Amino acid sequence: MQVSLPALKAFDAAARLGSFKAAATELSISPTAVSHHISNLEQRLSVTLFERTARKIKLTSVGLELSAATGHGFQIIDAAIQKIALAEKHITVSTTSSFAALVLIPSLQAFYSRYPDVQVNITSGESIDTHSYHLPVRFGETAKQNADDILSTERFNMFCIAQSAPQYEQAEHLTIYTTNWKNSELPKVPLQAWLELNGLQNKPVTVRTFDQELFGIQQAMLENALVFCSTTLVNGYVKAGVLKALNTRAVDSALCYYIADKAKRCDRHNVKFIEWLENLINN
């Protein structure tokens, strides 16, 4: 049997508050409207829900039974609404460890200063969450992605501790840390293309690799060595004067950062975060 939702809400309010007038105030309608809703509900169910006197109303046994059910039902609905509202203010960004550690986490305070009502949780991993308020920021092959999903296409260059740049530009032999991706299907880092672009293809080179760019960058900093990596990941270090690119030309790669199905992840907080992130990594 179908009954009116406004009638159930009027009944629930009157049952909780013990007054048609108080129910009317809570629902922002008139006491007459509350009375009509409840009378229509009683007619629909062919029962009496309240015993009415000149001064007060009292639930009948049937009214008590329905009141317990409507109270429980509206509590469940309210809890679901609260959960959804809370979730909308939280964004979980899943991404690579390197992007999380070197780009997102150091920049979060700048995001919070602009959007203090949004909480960002960052996880690293490969699974893509399907919730609309989750954002999978992925690293992959540019040619395999929808153009609208791409946040940035990656360029690579050679970096070192800022004060060491002059000595490396004159060095006869180069020891370079770079990345051999754990995912073998990804295009390789464009080291050979960089060497050729900069006329260094005949220079003696020793290449040492990790499976994440983060490790190569950290190790190069510890050893005061060279690292060939994405310009996006070291941008913060470069701006801070910690790392410096050699006096060389950066090379394009076949790699990009992207958000799978970006157009579908369009709640208002996601839109804010995506716009902020695109500005962060492209400027």
Summary, kept brief:
The protein is of the alpha/beta class and 283 residues long.
What this model shows, in words?
This protein has 10 helices and 11 strands. With 283 residues, the chain is α/β, with parallel strands linked by helices. It folds into 2 domains: 5-86, Arc Repressor Mutant, subunit A, CATH 1.10.10; 91-282, D-Maltodextrin-Binding Protein, domain 2 (3-Layer(aba) Sandwich). The strands form 2 sheets. Strands 3, 4, 5, 6, 7, 8, 9, 10 and 11 form a 9-stranded mixed beta sheet that branches. Strands 1-2 form a two-stranded antiparallel ribbon.
Task: Describe the secondary-structure layout.
Elements: H1 5-17, H2 20-27, H3 31-45, E1 50-52, E2 57-59, H4 61-88, E3 90-95, H5 97-114, E4 119-124, E5 134-141, E6 150-161, H6 165-169, E7 174-179, H7 191-197, E8 205-210, H8 213-223, E9 226-230, H9 231-239, E10 243-245, E11 251-259, H10 268-282
Parallel strand pairs: 3-4, 3-5, 7-8, 7-9
Antiparallel strand pairs: 1-2, 5-11, 6-9, 6-10, 6-11
Helix pairs in contact: 1-2, 1-3, 1-4, 2-3, 5-9, 5-10
